[in-house]
Amino acid sequence: MRLCSISVTARRLLGGPGPRAGDVASAAAARLPPSEGSGLCMVKEYLPKNFYSKDNEGSWFRSLFVHKVDPRKDAHSTLLSKKETSNLYKIQFHNVKPEYLDAYNSLTEAVLPKLHLDEDYPCSLVGNWNTWYGEQDQAVHLWRFSGGYPALMDCMNKLKNNKEYLEFRRERSQMLLSRRNQLLLEFSFWNEPQPRMGPNIYELRTYKLKPGTMIEWGNNW
Hints:
Blueprint lengths: L7 H6 L14 E4 L11 E4 L7 H10 L12 H5 L6 E10 L4 H17 L5 E8 L7 E9 L1 H12 L3 H11 L2 E9 L29 H7 L1
Antiparallel strand pairs: 1-2, 3-5, 3-6, 4-5
């Protein structure tokens, strides 16, 4: 990675404004050799000769008293998620050994619905799926935690003392190649996922957005 700044001449060729008072970053940049063992290119900046002219001196002085607005620090996911609810979702991806897929499905069918029905656990099982395209021999589970992150932590702490669940995890571990989890928030413009009578086919999409574009993407949807 290299660090550099745009010179005054380059700004003019690109149609940008010339140097302004206080705009040190727009001064011509001269690259120095990178330090040994570093991937950064050191940048030394020089001010234009007329930078401290009388016309610029007053504006430079006034710029010291310009009110600066702090950038918003809210996470885009918080701004786009629902305000009237505090649900948190966890989606689990389990890559199962091909010879154990049927046994895995039977095991999860016997244990996971019990957690869903137990009122002592603030979670509900929204759905279980096996993949058809993409990753093969994969199981997907979607959980909803009513109460956000505190509900998730409450559930995790209680499961540590649930002997049946611990035995389930031990038996399940012998059937898996790998597993991963994701925590998700709801977009405000979509309804909550509800159980449906099956069999059904669902499409699961993942969008990788450019940093800072999540609000624009959500508004387009």
